[in-house]
Amino acid sequence: MTRTLIHAVFATVALGCAAFVAYDWTRLQHAARVNQAIAAASVASGDPHRSAADDAPQILLARATALSKAGAYDAAARLYEGLIHEHPDDLGRTAMFDLGNMYLREGKGDGAGHGVKSLAMIGEAKARYRLLLRAAPDDWDARYNLERALWLAPETPTALEEPDVKEQHNVKVRDPESKDLP
Where is the composition biased (Basic and acidic residues) (predicted)? Predict the structure, then answer.
């Protein structure tokens, strides 16, 4: 009886291990397919609406990043926004961070007559970083990039006149013979 019980326990453990191996094998195969698709994703062959329903979200994120680097900001923004709305988890936060970075890069772009668009893009970047920080307050990269965006386009009005130094240092001291002290 004990020998049969030991064999049954061993068989159950072996089947459990086989199930874990099968699960990990399918995940490994899926990751290999996703990595292959990401490597094949390029802007030249990548219409953002090509097979969006069949693509894995990681592939869409890679395609949006490739479009962003190639300068196709509108198509990249549509892909990023779709990922943000469909995946509020880590992938959506990554898409939001990348979208903020794209807006910040676009806002810092060089060129004459770029001022108004630049401020609008930096404002969009700040909005994305703030949304990301509401979802993940411990994201230090988003904090740094928000601070950088605020440095590029401050939100507080600067004083046009220098404050009077005498007014700043004019301190009034109470009379030592004050009657209201105990």
Answer: 163-182
